[in-house]
Amino acid sequence: MSCQRRLDKTFEQAPILPLTSDTRYVLFSDCHRGNGTHNDNFLKNQHLYFAALKHYYHRGFTYIELGDGDELWENRSMEPIKEIHNDVFWQLTLFYKKNRLYMLYGNHDMIKKYPSFSRKNCSTYPCSTSRCHEPLFPDIHYYPGIILRNKTTGNSLYLTHGHQAALFNSTLWRVNCFLVRYFWKPLEQVGILDPTSAAKNYTSKQRSERKLSEWADLHHRTLITGHTHRPMLSPDSHYINVGSCVHPRCITCIEVCGESLTLVKWAMGTRENGNFYVERTVLSEYI
Fold it and tell me: What is the number of other CB atoms lying within 10 angstroms of the CB of residue 25?
C-alpha cells in the first residue's frame, strides 16, 4: 500500500469535529512521554508542557494529541510512564472530564489502536495526591485521524500523525519497534542515532515531509501532522506541522481558533529581576 493510499484510508472514517468561530483547539504531537530515565526525552520539557496545559485548560481549549504521546517503542509498559508523569496525566484528565480531549496514535504508540490495550493501560493512573489509582481515560478511543470541518464554509483541517509517509513506520511498525527497542535504543546512549527516524535523520525527515505535502497538494486539503518534529506553518503550503515536545529547549503546538492557526513556542524566559518564567511566543500565524 502506497503512502497516498495509507493517508486516504486514514480519513475514510475519521470523526468530524466542528470548526466554527467559537471553537478552540490546541494541537500537540510527539510528546514521547517516557519512564523518567536518561532515555526519556520528554522529561526535560515536562514543566513547559504542564504550564501550557494549564493555560489552554483555563481558556476553554479542546486538547488534541496527534500521536506519539507516549514512548511505547522504547518502553514495554505504560505503568512507569504514568507513574513518573502522573501530574501531567492528572492535568489531561481535566480535559477528558470536560469532553475536551481527543487522542490520535502515531508509530511510537501504534499499540493504542487496539481497544484491549487502551482498556488495560489507559483507564487508570497512579495519582500522587490521593495515593491510589484514579480514572484516567476510561472508554477512550485512539484514532488514526480527525477532521475539523466548518459546515458553513466547507473548509476542513485534516489531522493525523504523519507516520503513513514511511512503510516501516506504518505497515511494518512492529519490525521498527523491535529494532528501536533492542538495537537503536542502546546505540543512542553512545551517540549513534537511528538513521530511519524521520525526527533524527534529515534525509528521512525531508522524504516524509515531501510525501505528506504531495498528498495535501493533490487533494487540495490542509494537512496537519507531527512525526518529523519540525514545526512549520505557512500560507503558501497545504502542509502544516505541529512540531514536538522534545525540542532541546522548548515545546511547540498549534492553536486553532475559528479558522485561524497559530504556531506557538513555549520556553523559559527571564525577567529583569532574574526570575525565570514560562513564556508563550508566537512563531507564525495563518488567518
Answer: 23
Residue type, 102: Y
Q: CA separation (Å) from 205 to 126, 162, 166, 212, 232? A: 36, 11, 10, 11, 13
Report helix, strand or coil for 258: coil
User: pLDDT tens, 103-159?
Assistant: 999 999 999 999 999 999 999 999 887 778 999 999 999 999 999 999 999 999 999
How far CA 56 is from CA of 42, 72, 103, 139, 200, in Å, comes to: 19, 26, 16, 23, 29
The model's pTM: 0.93
- Pairing label, strands 142-143, 145-149: unpaired
Query: Tens digits of per-residue pLDDT, 8-57?
Result: 999 999 999 999 999 999 999 999 999 999 889 999 999 999 999 999 99
